[in-house]
Amino acid sequence: MTRKRRAERLRALAAHVLTAPVLLEGDAEQLLTVMRTGARSAGIPETDHASSTQPARVVVLAIQRDARRSSLVKAASMLRELDDHIAPDAVRIVVVQSRRTKLAPPKLQRLVAAEVLFHVALALSNVIPGQKERTLRQRIGLTTLDAAGFRILRFG
Q1: Containing H/E element for 67?
Q2: How many CB atoms lie within 10 A of CB 109?
């Protein structure tokens, strides 16, 4: 994909995402801190469920995986709790972090952000035309995240 086409897709994605705040929630505190810092530095309006005035169009849950409970059940119950603060057509993305994972390297942070944006772009494919498949670079990044202990899922 050329830089011009990629920049057009990212502008269209940003225009759609910036219409309402992004809801960042979860129980993986380190990952949430990194995501909130990144959202603030990128100028993306983010909110939490307590101060939400309008429903969020994009919801990103950061969940710490534990051995006692399924990550999918945990994500579904958290999404049900936040249902009042989420628009009906919202994109719901869950980032599952294993206990052994540390999100210190900036490269890992960029890979998580890129994969979340890929899922948002796929969910908004009717709004934002573009590729439906991952490039080789994106597949390698996804494999790296998988090896580092991250799973990124899209609900709905």
Answers
A1: none
A2: 16
Backbone angles phi, psi at 105, to 5 degrees: -65, 135
Query: What is the rounded (10 degree) CA torsion for 122, 50, 18, 74?
Result: -10
Identify whether the C-beta of residue 8 lies closer than 8 Å to the C-beta of residue 124.
no
d(CA 24, CA 36): 7
Measuring CA to CA, which residue among 89, 67, 71, 84 is closest to residue 19?
A: 89
Would the pTM of this model clear 0.90, i.e. be above it?
no
- In angstroms, the CA 47 to CA 44 distance is 10
What CA–CA distances, in Å, run from 40 to 35, 47, 48, 119? 9, 11, 13, 20
pLDDT tens digits, one per residue of 97-140: 887 666 657 777 777 877 887 777 777 766 556 666 777 888 88
The low-confidence residues of the chain, meaning pLDDT below 70, are 1-3, 6-7, 9-10, 13-14, 16-20, 49-52, 100-104, 125-132, 156
